[in-house]
């Protein structure tokens, strides 16, 4: 990226701020009237240079220009000054994510409150089953010799799996089986549960009574984990208010990208693996076909590990200096709630 002199940086900063505020192409006369003590001709020359360098573009034949994805990247990396969340926004977020709720409810409420505060779409990716640590297992009797295995993680993650019994078991035997497995598997990571059960079966086969052997078979079947729906999206209606998406085809392209949840999860998993906030602007993300879309995402977790990712999806014209701290604060609040829960 070429070095920009001080005047070019100031003009680019002013164009981006003006465009974020108004949503309309920015002309040199606008800037000359409101922000610069130089002629509009001078500003027009600077803006022409910025256009030649790929930072600005003309959306049509008007004299005004709009920032490109390259301009927003330079702005985020070099020009932007972050603003701390307002006290009312901090209170809304803290009150909106309930302490003591289950993991699923906490994630849903986090996505709702962040969408409400930012006025953009919000996405939260739930932890993979393998990311959790086992806390306990319970068996609930269903009909026709079937039971529901309920696995609860230390962080509140709950996984359910229906199972068929190969032998009859009474309510008391199911309780004993769940107590036995809960003690055996306590604090074992989800990804290591089946290995722990196999080790117990191999080492203690001669000593196992009939109930323990059946409990281990049930436990092995229950811990064949498949990822549930991992993603919560709130606030997609916000795009209807953005002038950038007034074009029907662009809106369709955006919603197709949102519907392809596997691609969205893959993008946000990159943030989780990186362990830090990332900002994907325009063609840096899977939403490039939809045009001017930015994803601001941050990992969340507890003191032991990163669990998942939450973020905001909005137009590239979003107010980055406000949105980025709100995403960070929501991730921190969610972490605190999970630690307390």
Task: Describe the 3D structure.
The protein is of the alpha+beta class and 341 residues long. The chain folds into 3 domains: 6-79, Winged helix-like DNA-binding domain superfamily/Winged helix DNA-binding domain (Arc Repressor Mutant, subunit A), CATH 1.10.10.10; 87-126 and 229-340, Beta-Lactamase; 130-222, Enolase-like, domain 1, CATH 3.30.390. Helix content is 47%, strand content 17%. It has helices spanning 6-22, 28-34, 40-52, 69-79, 87-96, 103-118, 171-184, 193-203, 210-222, 248-259, 261-274, 320-340; strands spanning 56-57, 66-67, 121-125, 134-141, 146-153, 158-164, 231-234, 278-281, 293-301, 306-315. The strands form 3 sheets. A 5-stranded antiparallel beta sheet has the order 7-3-10-9-8, sandwiched between helices. Helix 7 (171-184) packs across helix 9 (210-222). It is elongated and about 90 Å long. The mean pLDDT is 86.
Write the layout of secondary structure elements.
Blueprint: H1 6-22, H2 28-34, H3 40-52, E1 56-57, E2 66-67, H4 69-79, H5 87-96, H6 103-118, E3 121-125, E4 134-141, E5 146-153, E6 158-164, H7 171-184, H8 193-203, H9 210-222, E7 231-234, H10 248-259, H11 261-274, E8 278-281, E9 293-301, E10 306-315, H12 320-340
Helix pairs in contact: 1-3, 1-4, 2-3, 5-6, 5-12, 6-12, 7-9, 8-9
